[in-house]
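Sorry to interrupt, but I need a hand with the structure work. Could you add the entry underneath, on a fresh line?
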Amino acid sequence: MKNFLKNYLQKLSKAGLGLDFVSAAYSYGKFTIYCLVGPEENIIHLTFASNGHEMAQKRLIGLDNNVVFRALKQEDFRYNTVFKDYFTGDLSKLPLKIDSPFIGAGTSFQQRVWRHISAIPYGSCITYRELAESAGSHKGARAAGTACGANPLALIIPCHRVVAQNGLGGFAGGLDIKKSLLTLENAENNCIE
């Protein structure tokens, strides 16, 4: 896992892109996303939890102390309109690529889980058990939940659409955010008993 991220940083340096990342918190009403944008202008990490954001930054700096994070105003954020439209209910599918070195740094099971989460339609939910089965582990509901918690691209890989058999389950950004996202997507009645 560590080698994948280190190779990514080396590839950027060799390509002459440098190691300049954007690290920012952007607010959209009651939602705040913490985002890392890579030198290639792609979102490489997105979370609703500030501690997860800090850990991602520390991992990158720990691999190469030349990594620099700069701030970017929300109005200058390339994807600001996309997220604004999503959080106001005007957009049901985020037109963003899944392009993050943190994905490649995941285990093969995590990567399968994240692929299956990406296929869950807007306004729908599946259970951790159903997710585990679709990823090839018939008794891996807990492991699927752990993979959801390790998701490096919250919202882009919509892990909030995965719920427990008898309730919400967990969410790295907090259960209030998970419930609010499901409500925004009109999935609440289908997903929450």
Notes: Residues 2-102 form one domain. The beta strands are 20-28, 31-37, 43-47, 68-70, 126-127, 162-163.
